[in-house]
Specification:
Number of strands: 4
Helix content: 40-55%
Distance between the termini: 38 Å
Number of helices: 7
């Protein structure tokens, strides 16, 4: 129950700072006793999944802040602002659907995009607008340079909690472990300086 309350606080903080809340719906297959598909429905995420997601975001943010504070070589998960061309294309799509987005061409902040999503929430066009905004975004990527995360509105972010365990995720574990085991700062920089560029 306490974790649920904390997750609610974290979600509200994300909303207040203007982080995007976009959804990529997953299909759920309902099968009969013989394994034949009866229907395909949209899978809805429950409270437990939202809780896990919020704590993973917090862990990733904390790890990136720690690395910045320690000034150690590191791998960040960055998400840069959308290009002007992509924003122009998004505006055209929205205008076709009768959605006016004043200022979007000049200001592609997550808060402006969130306002658009809030305006269509619960309407038939919600998923189309959601998908159009996702397509307008730059692709998140790993980088040895900390450039912040546009979609989450965070200055410091990394990605080491993924259950997929990509190589950069494991590299981050190695760097943090070496630091916590008090590896000499100069040795740490020599060992991981070029490593983070190759791993990203």
């Amino acid at each position: 129950q306490l974790m649920g309350e904390l997750a609610s606080v974290l979600m509200e903080k994300r909303r207040q700072r203007g982080g995007l809340e976009l959804d990529s719906p997953e299909p759920k297959f309902r099968l009969d006793e013989n394994g034949q598909v009866l229907e395909i429905v949209t899978r809805k995420r429950g409270l437990a999944e939202h809780m896990i997601e919020e704590f993973m975001l917090l862990a990733n943010c904390s790890a990136a802040k720690f690395a910045c504070g320690q000034q150690i070589p590191f791998i960040y998960r960055i998400h840069e602002s959308p290009t002007l061309d992509r924003m122009e294309n998004l505006c055209r799509v929205l205008e076709v659907m009768g959605i006016t987005a004043p200022g979007l061409r000049q200001n592609s902040s997550p808060a402006v995009l969130t306002k658009i999503m809030d305006d269509v929430r619960g309407k038939d066009m919600e998923q189309i607008v959601n998908d159009a905004i996702i397509r307008s975004m730059a692709k998140a990527r790993y980088s040895p340079e900390n450039k912040g995360h546009f979609g989450l509105m965070l200055d410091d972010y990394t990605h080491f909690t993924s259950p997929i365990r990509r190589y950069p995720d494991l590299s981050i574990h190695r760097i943090i472990s070496a630091n916590l085991l008090h590896m000499n700062p100069e040795r740490l920089k020599n060992r991981f300086g070029s490593f983070v560029k190759d791993s990203a």
